[in-house]
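Q: Hi! Curious about what Ras-related protein RHN1 looks like structurally. Here's the sequence.
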Amino acid sequence: GHNNLNAKLVLLGDMGAGKSSLVLRFVKGQFLEFQESTIGAAFFSQTLAVNDATVKFEIWDTAGQERYHSLAPMYYRGAAAAIIVYDITSTDSFSRAKKWVQELQKQGNPNIIIALAGNKADLEDKRKVTAEEARAYAEENGLFFMETSAKTAVNVNDIFYEIAKRLPRA
Ligand code: GDP
Ligand code: MG
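A: Let's find out. The predicted structure is below.
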């Protein structure tokens, strides 16, 4: 049968990791070299058809700075899915991503689907975090993992598609 689902999705991760750029790529098919940094959070929606269902993502793109941390629960509370984004050229951003995973697993919806996105995969020559390390971490923590590039569009639709496939059907 046909299902129409609404799914609240939150993007979390260090400032500059590429959260807004991933959303802009997914929602508008665009990329900006000088993406403005997000203040507070921004809302987008996008619909995706997956097998037997149409999933309407209600996307909260958060700011990532520490001074906005106390706002994060407003965005992840009740979320069906989260994309935790780090930048493959920054070990700090990978550490920050792990902190977000811990927080979500402690405070978030227990059934939340968590995707770990190693973004800026186009910057191979500046890579600091290996795919193997991130994949192992993801497996240990029950997340699914993809390397993405908002710049080249690699794996951007795919990560949303993989989330859509994992959402519980009504
Ligand atoms: P946010 O703070 O997590 O929302 O990060 P932004 O989306 O604002 O991106 C921060 C900077 O990284 C911007 O200058 C983007 O153009 C750049 N950026 C984002 N994604 C990519 C990517 O996949 N590849 C490259 N090379 N740059 C990216
Ligand atoms: Mg942003």
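A: A fun detail: The chain has a mean pLDDT of 94.
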